[in-house]
Design brief:
mainly alpha; 5 helices
């Protein structure tokens, strides 16, 4: 159950950031579509913040034992920290600016770049979770 919650939070949270980044690309050229998308508060992406909670809990109850000092666990936590910093420091502020003005090209570019970076971080995290390199 904990692994399912961990995976669900990751998939929904990172997918939400990816979609928001895509809308950051199209919003300035399609203001009506941008206003429609950015009229919602976009809370699903905040699930990214819960990813390590369920991940660490899943490791703690793992039947084969846990190794919180394993390189893949530490790397995954680093990836999460980077994604969280992007979410809170770039994505959310850019979304707020686009809610105020979908024509804000600087906010749109920042959102698109941060969304793409989060996609790369998500791919790296998935690789680590699957391979669990030692």
């Amino acid at each position: 159950m904990l692994v399912a919650l961990h995976v669900t939070c990751a998939v929904v949270g990172f997918a939400s950031v990816a979609v928001s980044g895509a809308y950051g690309v199209i919003a300035p050229g399609s203001p009506e579509e941008g206003r429609r998308y950015f009229s919602s508060p976009g809370r699903a992406e905040l699930l990214i913040l819960a990813v390590p909670v369920f991940g660490v809990a899943a490791l703690a109850v793992r039947p084969s034992g846990h190794d919180f000092a394993a390189a893949w666990v530490l790397a995954a936590l680093g990836i999460w920290a980077a994604a969280s910093a992007l979410l809170l420091g770039v994505v959310r502020p850019a979304e707020r600016r686009l809610r105020a003005s979908v024509g804000d090209r600087a906010a749109a570019r920042a959102l698109a770049r941060a969304g793409a970076a989060c996609d790369v971080l998500f791919a790296a995290a998935v690789f680590l979770m699957i391979t669990q390199p030692r």
